[in-house]
Amino acid sequence: MMTFTIMADSACDLPLDFYEENDVVLLPLKVNLNGKEFEDLKSISPSSVYEAIRNGETPKTSQVSPAVFQDTFTQMAKNKEVGIYIAFSSQLSGTYQTALMIYEQVKEEYPDFEMKIIDTKCASLGCGLIVQKAVSMRKENKSLEEVLPSLQFYADHMEHLFTVDDLDYLAQGGRVSKASAFIGGLLQIKPLLHVEDGKLIPLEKMRGKKKLLRRMLELMAEKGSHLSDQTVAISHADDEQTAIELKNMVVEQFHPKEVYISSIGAAIGSHTGANTIALFFLNSKE
Fold it and tell me: What value does the mean pLDDT take over residues 236-265?
């Protein structure tokens, strides 16, 4: 059976060694800091972004460059590879639209080139869990046609719950409306957000970290389905201690198959700021 190539952008917040060990093509978003442009995951570390933010700097990000898509897709077309690109939410980045445009251009030159591009409407490890699913199904020798419905199911049923220290970063980047960026820092009020149809939506605000983590678990109990059969994911922005604390709470209450923890990368971290904690799980059973 003909295998297929898996591509993912760095906004899925899987570590670099995941791409290397699982033969996944990395398409890096760009981070601009102090007038220099870096490739997320390849030439800039998340910790350097958080340090810059703490020092009052504002990193800027841009989508995967058209040239990277052009080179990657053209090489695949020449090699007669079949591929799938699992893309960051089209509501948060222009990367998905650019990929579609470049695919059409490459297809004009190579009419037989076949590739699927999925707009996951997900971010961070919400997208990362879909990439992991694709990898595990490919290891089971499933064809691309067999894999696609599962990946779409994951994309349609992925829940994101997350909190940030300061909504200002998301507001500056246009990821949430300025009106949503209520000021809470001085009062230790933290916002809780989720993702709806690919957009970031503030849910509620709470005072104190412990209360917030407990509320995340309450919402997980309400929204989640068959959690003991799932891999649950937690991503964090330079706050591994809280990520482990949340993991222990999740394990104690829901006994999932696995809890996967990863750092939020430089691209997404540029918008969330440090100390973000995010929780991902499915709200339905396939």
Answer: 97
